[in-house]
Model the fold of this input.
Amino acid sequence: MNYEEHEQIIDSSDSYQSFSERRFGLSTSKFFFLSGLFVGTLFYLGVLIFGNNSILVLIHLEEYQNFLIDDIERLKSENAALQKQYFELKELDADAETAKRGVVAP
Done:
């Protein structure tokens, strides 16, 4: 086999190669399989980032949880102040009732 025959064999095999074989060195079936796998992976990542159970939803829920924790602390302190005010008023009412009866509070 001489050089010219060898070049003819190589040239004839190039004409039968598909696009994926010429560009990527893969057979057509492997190319479609890897393309499908790539598209599936992209779809899965899209669902992870933007879906109903996604990372963005988790971040929003954590922000809402922090807001609720802060609101609970604010309401607890407001409740304590109101209870203090209530008991002070209740004490004043008790003193007023004892004064009406004529009993002097110590």
